[in-house]
Write a structure and sequence with these properties.
Blueprint: H1 5-15, H2 28-31, H3 41-44, H4 52-60, H5 68-81, H6 87-92, H7 97-110, H8 117-136, E1 143-145, E2 149-150, E3 159-160, E4 164-166, E5 169-175, H9 181-201, E6 207-214, E7 220-227, H10 230-249, H11 266-274
Parallel strand pairs: 5-6
Antiparallel strand pairs: 1-4, 2-3, 4-5, 6-7
Length: 276
């Protein structure tokens, strides 16, 4: 079923307590947009505590190059997802699937910076194992890789793209930064994706999954099941409205008390503050 067995076991265990959420994506009178500006999920869930990155980009018009950390994350993200983009071919040609994945891996690794190839290779292997497992499973759920999900009815940018949707469960990928900040932001992201799926399908989405990649001696993936509670849904809506207010009214939220070192806006933000 693509996701590891232990993930499904955690979902089943969590279902014992049930999740009676009221802020569902289809409840437009409660979760609909409150401003004309509709932010992206990245803007709502960015690591900047005050969302000053949104102010600098959307109001001031600054542009920055992706940080090294962002570029690394994107390369590893693609290595992990690439085998899952080829699920239909793998299912059709199981006899030669291993050879086909080997050729695909060589193409993927050629696109990855040399210092990341070991980690990318390990993550490709994880994605390949999940893809092969799905192909032979008789009870396979539908899997969509980076699908377009309409989200304007929940006040987000027209379309959002979770990394994976397994059945109706959104799955997002994050490279560990050595603290809980990015994981917490990804919990908000899968909540936003779940609400968008609810809005589009009319079906409840009670769980999301965050795949946490840890770049240790042997890169590995940890799976976090996120129950999409009303508390998380409310936080998504609060962050959404804060971002929309900043962009729509052009209000500078000010410097955050601390900045993640990987933030590409770090130097621009502080330089701009010096000229205020």
């Amino acid at each position: 079923m693509v996701l590891p067995v232990e993930v499904w076991e955690r979902v089943k265990a969590a279902e014992v307590g049930s999740n009676i959420a009221e802020l569902r994506g289809w409840a437009r009178e409660r979760v609909g947009p409150r401003y004309r500006y509709m932010p992206t999920v990245y803007e709502v869930c960015s690591p900047c505590p005050t969302h000053r990155d949104v102010y600098l980009r959307r109001v001031v018009g600054y542009r920055v190059e992706p940080s090294r950390a962002m570029a690394c994350g994107a390369a590893l993200h693609d290595a992990f997802l690439e085998p899952l983009r080829h699920l239909s071919e793998i299912e059709r040609s199981l006899g030669s699937a291993v050879e086909a994945l080997g050729r695909l891996k060589c193409r993927v690794l050629r696109r990855v910076p040399r210092d990341l190839r070991r980690a990318a290779s390990a993550l490709f292997d994880v994605g390949s194992a999940l893809a092969l497992k799905w192909a032979v499973d008789e009870r396979k759920l539908p899997v969509l890789v980076e699908p377009y999900v309409e989200a304007s009815s929940i006040g987000m940018a027209d379309g959002v793209r979770p990394d994976l949707v397994v059945g109706l469960i959104p799955v997002d990928f994050v490279v560990s930064q050595g603290n809980g900040l990015y994981l917490e932001r990804k919990r908000l992201a899968v909540t936003a994706y779940g609400m968008a799926i609810e809005s589009m399908t009319g079906n409840p989405v009670d769980y999301g999954v965050v795949a946490v990649v840890r770049l240790e001696r042997l890169p590995r993936v940890g799976w976090r099941v996120v129950q999409l509670t009303d508390e998380l849904r409310s936080r998504v809506l609060e962050e959404r409205d804060e971002v929309a207010r900043i962009a729509e009214h052009g209000e500078d939220p000010g410097l955050p008390p601390s900045c993640p070192r990987s933030c590409p806006w770090r130097s621009v933000c502080r330089e701009d503050a010096l000229h205020m």
